[in-house]
Design goal:
Blueprint: H1 6-14, E1 19-24, E2 33-38, E3 41-46, E4 49-57, E5 61-65, E6 74-77, H2 78-87, E7 92-93, H3 101-107
Antiparallel strand pairs: 1-4, 1-7, 2-3, 4-5, 5-6
Protein name: C39 family peptidase
Pfam families: Peptidase_C39_2
Domain Peptidase C39-like: 2-67
Length: 113
């Protein structure tokens, strides 16, 4: 899903499929970047790169599960989150179909209550 428009990401949520999206640790626009050379290519990335699981939305917010903080269904300002997601390269992925229980254990190795 990387590079797809936001509406495609939201369409997955409407279908009930969570989406892994890249953001920053505080979900705000990155303010610290690191650049280095790899061969002839220059790589630039924020120092606060982070991925979360997008699980829902309403008119003003998105709801995420955050593996860094352990927060579930954490409410974040949608405009801020969307802008950060764009700056981060619109990186996202989801399962093509409902994951099996063994796939879920890869991401949630502990019982979810």
């Amino acid at each position: 899903m990387t590079g797809k428009p936001w509406r495609d990401v939201i369409a997955q949520i409407i279908k009930g499929k969570p989406v892994v999206v890249w953001t920053t640790g505080d979900y705000k626009q990155p303010d610290r970047w690191k650049t280095w050379k790899h061969g002839n290519e220059e790589i630039k990335t924020p120092l606060d790169l982070h991925a979360v699981v997008l699980i829902g939305f309403d008119p003003d917010h998105v709801y995420i599960d955050d593996p860094l903080t352990g927060k579930k269904a954490h409410r974040v300002n949608k405009k801020m989150f969307f802008r950060t997601w764009e700056i981060m390269g619109k990186q996202a992925l989801t399962f093509p179909s409902t994951p099996t229980s063994w796939q879920l254990r890869l991401y949630y190795p502990f019982p979810r209550f």
